[in-house]
Design a protein that fits this description.
Elements lengths: L24 H8 L5 H5 L36 H6 L3 H4 L13 E4 L1 H4 L15 H4 L14 H6 L1 H6 L4 E4 L3 E3 L2 E2 L6 E2 L6 E7 L6 H13 L3 E6 L8 E3 L14 E2 L5 E2 L22 E3 L31 H4 L13 H18 L3 E4 L7 H17 L6 E4 L6 H4 L1 H4 L5 E2 L2 H12 L5 H8 L15 E3 L8 H8 L5 H17 L3 E5 L25 H4 L20 H15 L2 H4 L1 E7 L5 E8 L4 E8 L5 E6 L4 E6 L15 E3 L5 E6 L3 E7 L10
Length: 678
C-alpha cells in the first residue's frame, strides 16, 4: 500500500495471542476427505451483477477463459497442477482445501521489476516530474518498470520455481499527489483514478492481456493486486479540516436531514438517499477537472464516500476514515458493492486473470466481503474457471483477527501475517522454537466448510513492512555475511516446507535488503539511479544496485529453485496435514510431520535456529526414513544426520542431528497406520 501526501504511516501491529490447541490426527484425516467447492462461496450473489452464463454474449473482443478446440472452457493450471491432475492431486487431499493450495507466488512491483519499453516511462505525459511522475533518481517516483519488462522476464521468474505472478496494482493512477517535499508519484499503484485502464506508465490493456497469455503458455498464473477500500485523493473538505469525526458526534443524515446508522443497511439493497449535507464533512472538488477524474463515472459522486476525515487506524475510524487522505469508499452502500463487483468482473472476463490479492481488507466492513467474494468466485466459475482464487491483506499478527475474514468474510484466504511475525522471530531473531508451535496451534481458527490455513499465502517481508533480508541484517548487526545469508535461507526453507502457499517478494532472491519498509523496500531489479538504494548491501553477492540483478546463480535464487522442485515433486510438503512433533523451549529445533492421508506416507521436517548443531528424538509413525533434503550430506556447516537413512526404534522415534541454521527433510519408505493415539 503506497502513501499519498503525508509521511510514514503508523500501521497497527497486534502481537500474536496464541491458544494451545490439542491436534488430533484422526480429526485432521477425517476433514482431509472433505471436498472443496467453489459453489460454496459462490452461493450468495443475490442483488449483485449477474454472471455471464453464456460467454458468447460477451462484448466484441472480450474473452472469458481459454478454450479447447471444441470450445469447452480450459482450466489454466501451473505446470505442477497439470502434471498432478489425475494422480497426486486427487490422492493428497489432506485438508478442506480452497481452490488452490499448491501455488508458489512471486510478488513483483511492476515499476521496479524490469523496463521493457522506455517509451512509456513518462506515461504519455509531458513536462517535469511533477507532471509525469517519472524520476528514477527519487525512490518516491516512477522508475520505468512495465508489463513489457515482466513479459521479458517470465522465464527468469519461472526458473526459480514460481507458478504464479502477483502484480502490484496496475490500474491508472493519479501520477503525482502532494506538493513540495510531500510530493510523490503513484508508481506503487495504490492511488487509482481509472479502474478500467492499465496505468500508461506500465503499458496498456493489450499489454496486460499479452502478459496473461504468455504466463499461461508457461503454465503460470497471474494475480492482480486490487483495492476496494479507497481511490486516489481527489475529494477535499469545504471545512479545510481533516481530523476524524465519529458517528456518535456526527451521525449520517439522510437527504431530509434525519440521522441514521448506516450499519442498519449494510449488506442490504435499501439505503437512505443522501446529499452533500449528509456527511460530517462537506465534500468538494479542488478543480473542475477533478469532478470527472475517476472512472467508472459513479466514482465521481462524492456521496459514495465516507467523508469522515483521516483514519486514526483504531476503533471505528479504521473502517470509516480516509487512509492517509485517500478517498474512503462508502462500502456499506449497495451501489458501491455492485460497482466494485462489476469492475473486477470485467477484468476476469476480458483479461482472463486467475485471481486477486485484495488490499486493506480489514479497513472495509464485513458485509462488503460477504457479498464481494462469493460474487467474484461465482462469476469466474460461470466462465469455466473453477480455480479462481482471492486472498486478502489483513495487517495483523493475531490469528483471531486475520481468520475472521475467511470464516465470516467468505474470502478463500488471507495473507499470513502471523506466520511472517513468527518466522522473523525464529529465523532472524533467534527466538524459541516453541513460538512456532504456538503459531500452528492456532490454525484451527481458519477452518470452516471451504477453507483453512493451508490456502493462506505465507511470506517473509513485503513492500510495506520491509524485506526479510533487511530484517536479518538489522536483527543481527555485526554478524558475518555467511550467517546473514544462512538466516535468510532458513526463513525461505521454513516458508516452503510448512503449510501455506509461499510468496517470494521480488528482489529477495537476489539478496536485497534495505534499511526499512515502504520506499526503502522497493529497489529496482534493473540498474538503479536512486542514491538511497545504491548504498544498500546485498546478501550472498558482491553485486550492487548500480547494475541489473537477475542472476540465476545467486545462492538464494538457486535455493528457491531447489525448494520449489522438492515441493512440486512431493506435494505433501505443500498441503499434507502438518503434525507437531518437537519444539525446544529455547532457540533450537522445531520438528513436524507432513502426512499424506490417502497414501499414508509420512515426511519429517526439522529446522534448527540455534548457533550449534542439535540432536533430537522425533516421534514418528515408525519405520525407515530416507533423507530428501538436503540432497547430499556435506561436512561442517551443512552436515545432517550421517547417511541417507534413519530408522525408528521400538518407541517409533528417530534421532536426527540438525546443524546450525539449517533444515532437513526425511520421507518414510513405508505406509504408516493411523493409530488411535495419533
Amino acid at each position: 500500500m503506497g502513501l499519498p501526501r503525508f509521511a510514514a504511516l503508523p500501521r497497527p501491529w497486534v502481537p500474536v495471542r496464541p491458544r494451545v490447541v490439542a491436534a488430533l490426527l484422526g480429526i485432521a484425516v477425517a476433514m482431509s476427505l472433505l471436498p472443496a467447492s467453489a459453489a460454496t462461496r459462490a452461493a450468495d450473489t443475490t442483488g449483485l451483477a449477474d454472471p455471464v452464463a453464456d460467454p458468447s454474449a460477451l462484448p466484441p473482443g472480450a474473452t472469458a477463459v481459454s478454450r479447447d478446440a471444441e470450445g469447452r472452457p480450459k482450466r489454466i493450471r501451473s505446470a505442477y497442477s497439470k502434471k498432478s491432475e489425475a494422480g497426486d492431486r486427487t490422492l493428497a487431499r489432506d485438508s478442506p482445501r480452497a481452490d488452490l493450495t499448491r501455488e508458489r507466488f512471486y510478488f513483483a512491483m511492476t515499476d521496479r521489476f524490469a523496463n521493457g519499453d522506455a517509451g512509456n516511462d513518462r506515461g504519455g505525459q509531458t513536462g517535469d516530474r511533477l507532471a509525469t511522475g517519472y524520476d528514477p533518481a527519487d525512490k518516491g517516483f516512477y522508475s520505468g518498470g512495465d508489463l513489457a519488462g515482466l513479459i521479458d522476464k517470465l522465464d527468469y521468474i519461472k526458473g526459480m520455481g514460481s507458478t504464479a505472478v502477483w502484480l502490484t496494482p496496475s490500474f491508472a493512477n493519479r501520477p503525482v499527489q502532494g506538493s513540495g517535499e510531500d510530493a510523490s508519484a503513484g508508481y506503487h499503484g495504490y492511488w487509482v483514478t481509472d479502474f478500467t485502464r492499465i496505468d500508461p506508465h506500465l503499458g496498456s490493456n493489450a499489454d496486460m492481456k499479452r502478459l496473461v497469455r504468455e504466463a499461461h503458455k508457461r503454465g503460470m498464473k497471474v494475480f492482480f493486486d486490487v483495492i476496494t477500500n479507497h481511490t486516489a485523493d481527489v475529494i477535499d473538505y469545504a471545512e479545510g479540516r481533516y481530523g476524524y469525526r465519529s458517528k456518535a458526534t456526527h451521525p449520517y443524515l439522510d437527504a431530509d436531514g434525519r440521522p441514521f446508522d448506516d450499519r442498519d443497511h449494510a449488506g442490504r439493497e435499501t439505503f437512505p438517499t443522501l446529499s452533500r449535507d449528509s456527511f460530517p464533512y462537506t465534500p468538494k472538488f479542488r478543480t473542475e477537472a477533478d469532478r470527472e477524474a475517476k472512472t467508472p463515472a459513479w466514482l465521481n459522486d462524492p456521496t459514495m464516500y465516507h467523508n469522515r476525515g483521516d483514519s486514526t487506524f483504531a476503533g471505528e475510524s479504521s473502517e470509516y476514515g480516509d487512509f492517509v487522505g485517500l478517498d474512503d469508499l462508502f462500502t456499506e452502500r449497495p451501489e458501491v458493492v455492485r460497482g466494485m463487483v462489476e469492475i473486477h468482473q470485467k477484468w476476469v472476463r476480458e483479461a482472463g486473470i486467475d485471481g486477486f490479492r485484495i488490499d486493506t481488507v480489514k479497513h472495509v466492513n464485513m458485509e462488503f466481503w460477504q457479498q464481494f467474494a462469493p460474487a467474484l468466485d461465482g462469476y469466474a466459475a460461470s466462465l469455466g474457471d473453477e480455480d479462481f482464487f482471492m486472498f486478502g491483506e489483513v495487517f495483523s499478527g493475531d490469528p483471531a483477527i486475520t481468520s475472521r475474514y475467511t470464516r465470516e468474510g467468505k474470502l478463500p484466504a488471507v495473507l499470513d501475517f502471523p506466520f511472517q511475525e513468527a518466522v522473523r522471530g525464529y529465523a532472524s531473531r533467534g527466538g524459541a522454537a516453541s513460538d512456532l508451535r504456538r503459531l500452528y496451534a492456532d490454525d484451527d481458527r481458519y477452518t470452516d466448510a471451504d477453507s483453512n490455513a493451508y490456502a493462506n499465502p505465507t511470506f517473509l517481508g513485503n513492500h510495506d513492512m520491509g524485506r526479510f533480508g533487511g530484517f536479518v541484517a538489522r536483527d543481527n548487526a555485526g554478524a558475518s555475511s555467511d550467517e546473514l545469508l544462512r538466516r535468510d535461507l532458513l526463513g525461505h526453507e521454513l516458508m516452503h516446507l510448512t503449510r501455506g502457499q509461499p510468496v517470494v517478494y521480488y528482489g529477495d532472491e537476489q539478496g536485497f535488503t534495505g534499511p526499512g519498509g515502504d520506499k526503502d523496500a522497493r529497489q529496482s531489479m534493473f540498474a538503479s539511479q536512486t542514491p538511497d538504494y545504491l548504498d544498500d548491501d546485498l546478501l550472498g553477492t558482491s553485486s550492487t544496485h548500480a547494475t541489473d540483478n537477475y542472476d540465476r546463480n545467486h545462492p538464494i535464487y538457486r535455493k528457491l529453485a531447489a525448494l520449489a522442485k522438492l515441493r512440486a515433486k512431493h506435494p505433501t510438503l505443500a498441503d499434507g496435514a502438518q503434525i507437531h512433533r518437537h519444539a525446544d523451549d529455547a532457540p533450537g529445533v522445531y520438528a513436524f510431520s507432513r502426512f499424506d492421508a490417502r497414501k499414508q506416507v509420512e515426511y519429517v521436517v526439522a529446522v534448527n535456529n540455534a548457533e550449534a548443531a542439535r540432536t533430537v528424538p522425533v516421534k514418528t509413525y515408525g519405520g525407515t526414513f530416507d533423507r530428501l533434503y538436503p540432497a547430499t550430506a556435506a561436512s561442517g556447516h551443512n552436515a545432517v544426520t550421517a547417511g541417507k537413512t534413519v530408522t525408528a526404534g521400538d518407541d517409533k522415534r528417530i534421532t536426527i542431528t540438525v546443524p546450525t541454521l539449517s533444515a532437513a527433510v526425511f520421507q518414510a519408505r513405508q505406509r504408516a497406520p493411523l493409530p488411535p493415539d495419533a
